[in-house]
Amino acid sequence: MTTWTPWQERAGRLAARWSRAIRPLPSILAVLLLTAASACTPSVQGSVSPQRFATLRRIVLLPFAAPEGAPRGFSESFADEMSSHLAGARFAVLDRTRVVSALTSREILGGDLADPAVAADVGEAMGADAVLVGRVVAYHDQALSPAVDTSLAISVRIVDVRTREVILSTSSEATAAASFCSQEMTCLRGKVMSAIGHFIVEGVDRE
Q1: Count: domains in the chain
Q2: Does any domain span residue 75?
Q3: At a CB cut-off of 8 Å and minimum separation 6, what does 10 contact?
Q4: CA 64 to chain centre
Q5: Is 106 within a domain?
Q6: Fewer Cβ close by (within 10 Å): the C or N end of the chain?
Q7: Is residue 176, in this structure, part of any structural domain at all?
Q8: Are strands 58-61 and 92-93 parallel, antiparallel or unpaired?
Q9: Whole-structure pTM value
Q10: What is the DSSP string of 169-202?
């Protein structure tokens, strides 16, 4: 039989208490990690008519409407990035360089594309079945304005060229504190665009 000294007994009791104290830590850490991750997770909402996608095979991505004061190339960069997130869809995305030429030849400004009829006209001229019209609703970069959290909100509509009707509408937004997302705008932008692209691809494949 093992004989414990008073010191050993005390050490044993302390070890048992310490074990009970740290037992909840993995669960607490998991909650903290999920909370941090959720700060960078975009919310997505929208509506889609799956059956309307059955005849859509060619789509044009138009430049995104940008907030006032956005840098040059801002609208085109969002359209280009959106194109990469639609790679899993059944429809083909028409060459983006042709879009620029079509808009220039018709002297169409970015603001005009907010009109579904105007957007559909451009798509029809390019031989597309539908056009994707996007808008950057909110864009706040903490790197430029340290007093605010980085945030981004985007809305997207897909317009049927033949009927001029909006057959898909979706939006996504995200905010995050600097401690949760390195290179915040790059992180958030990628997540928001990916969420919208996933919604569109799933909408197409849901028919």
Answers
A1: 1
A2: yes
A3: none
A4: 14
A5: yes
A6: N
A7: yes
A8: parallel
A9: 0.73
A10: EEEEEEEE-GGGSSSHHHHHHHHHHHHHHHHHHH
Q: Nearest Cα to 38, choosing from 191, 144, 171, 189?
A: 191
Whichever domain contains 70, its CATH number is 3.40.50.10610
Q: Is 120 within the bounds of a domain?
A: yes
Q: Is 136 helix (H, G, I), strand (E, B) or coil?
A: strand
Rounded to whole angstroms, the Cα distance separating 125 from 131 reads 11
Q: What is the pLDDT of residues 3-55, one digit of tens each?
A: 555 555 565 565 556 555 555 545 544 444 444 444 446 777 888 787 777 77
Q: Which residue has the tokens 């414990």?
A: 4
Contact 123, 131 (CB under 8 A): yes
Using only C-alpha atoms, the chain has a radius of gyration, in whole angstroms, of: 25
Domain with 103, as residue range(s), is: 40-205
**Residue whose tokens read 């579904």:** 116
**89: DSSP letter:** S
Residue 49 CB burial class (10 angstroms; 0-12, 13-18, ≥19): middle
Structure confidence at residue 65 as a pLDDT band (50, 70, 90) = confident
Q: What pLDDT score does 154 carry?
A: 93
